[in-house]
Amino acid sequence: MRLLTTTALATALALPALAADPELTVFDWAGFEEPSIFQGYVDKYGDNPTYAFYGDDDEAFQKIASGFKADLVHPCSQMVSKYRDAGLIEPWDTSRIPEFENIDKRFLASETFVDDQGVWYIPSDWGVTAIAYSNANVTPEDVSTLEVFTDPKFQGRTSLPDSSDDVWALAYLATGVTDWTDTTDEQFAAAAEWLRAAHQNVAAYWADPAEMSQLMASGAVDVAWSWNDGIVYLRDDNYDVGFQREAKEGSSTWFCGFINIKDGPGSEDKVYDFINAWLAPESARGLLDTIGYGHTNLKGMETIADDPAVAEGLSPVEVPILAQTPNDPAQRERQLAEFEKIKAGF
């Protein structure tokens, strides 16, 4: 397996790819172009949408804000307020989305998503961030605590996401914070200090789960803070990887979904056909098998409830959980700026 550099991967992800149906452009994370996730759309039109890819949420927002043309974007929950505040999106007409009523209501419990002006966000998928580790080189005791990321034994052998949200979720958990919606200056400072210590062990920050899996499979790192999909990719390549969601300090959950870009260049009818295909209960199987994520449609989750991948990666755990729900935009910007300084060695 060839090890991609972060720069090379980011360049590849920034380019439009998989040009197909010219009447629908989806700006998305790499990996979600798998047709089994939106099979109903392919069945109706005989083709995939045209896809363009980004490496992280902040990159996607900057491109859209700078004029990149797309019909749909797939941000995680913390980003929706930025698109709303910038006037880039329009509310969804939920009367055109039959499965909307079956979305787990916990994913809509924010005025950022639903208010008296309408529904601004369609949650579609969710997952967890936890410790991926090499069973050959790391013991269960090593990963019983998040301090594995600061353990001198693993200097130069760890990888963290190049994602401010995920690394701050890790740092807050490691320093005893499980709700980031109401953090103090002291808690922020403690988490930043912990991140600086963890930075000393980092061999590379991964920009995409495929890059993380390449780092581990190549032997470059033994421990990573990982989403579910990185584990899927590693096991598909027969790499013996564990996924520790029950470190004593806890793990993190998050969810993502779709926003409808105002004045998108494509067909609005196809926008709704696509989101309806995504939300169809039968799409839960494609999402789980391809990426390892859960479906926000409760009927969809019922179809995969007995799958071992759900038991390992998506079932409830008996440790603290930091839910990556929307937090204060100013706090998020503060975290992003501090993370950039930490990566630069300051």
From TrEMBL:
InterPro entries: SBP (IPR006059). Residues 1-19 form the signal peptide. Pfam families: SBP_bac_8. Keywords: Signal. This is Extracellular solute-binding protein. It comes from Paracoccus marinaquae.
